[in-house]
Amino acid sequence: MIPPAFDYHAPTSVNDALALMGKLGSDAKWLAGGHSLLPMMKLRFAQPAHLIDLNRIAELRGIREEGTQVVIGAMTSENDLIASSILRERVPLLAEAPKLIADPQVRNRGTIGGDIAHGDPGNDHPALTLALNASFDLVGPGGRRNVVADSFYLGLYATALAEDEILAAIRVPFFAPGTGWAYEKLKRKTGDWATAGAAVVMRMSGGKVTECRIALTNLAPTAIRAADAEKALIGQAVTDASVKAAAAAAMAVCDPAEDLRGDIEYKTAMAGQMVQRAIKAAAARCA
Length: 287
What we know:
Number of helices: 12
Helix content: 25-40%
Strand content: 25-35%
Distance between the termini: 53 Å
CATH class of the largest domain: Alpha Beta
Radius of gyration: 19 Å
Order of helices and strands: EHEHEEEHHHHHHEEHEEEEEEEHHH
CATH topology of the largest domain: Uridine Diphospho-n-acetylenolpyruvylglucosamine Reductase, domain 3
Shape: globular
Largest sheet: 5 strands, antiparallel
Number of domains: 3
């Protein structure tokens, strides 16, 4: 289908973009990669009178080190994440996981910020940012604020990002030496959203887990932390019994929607399998 008519705006600075949004108000929408908004417009589910394209704002792109964090511009593409030597050295999970997102064409256009800001439980970066203990720089008329990932995802297509704010950057702490990591994703075919996905970041000492963060993709109205699964692992050796206990705890917090990818029982069971795989893969990388 053809979307309804709209006016197109292409500011070249964050300040210009915010000024436009302030002038146009609720009739305007931000445009990042466009993979979510444009299909909704074609189906007439969304009918903004104005699109404000963020692609020409150079300050919203790029990957850099700042103190003990990696700072990623929200308009940085998935392919740029994959190619980043900084991410491979400091936060390798963010260089590897995007390889499981969609296909090369989508990864060339799709942005990390768009994936996060949309609030879709099927998107991959929300769970990744929860597991990575990331935070987000949000810029709006009132200035800049930073929100941790644990407080950002509020529900189905709902986040802490206000309509007149721009997600400017994602901040991720460097991995400490010996950090293990993994993202396991079950999908029907290449390019599909996850039927179930699990991200794990962990550390071990003396053969036991000392730190662990586990987050789930497409298993609730939004990406979620599996806190009880983390507790089941911390202080334990990674054995079949402890891994199964963590998986059971993760399954207990799942609340997936039934769809063509499977019913609730199947998706919950697959969540357990993805958690087990991710824990074992992350543990194997701890050194």
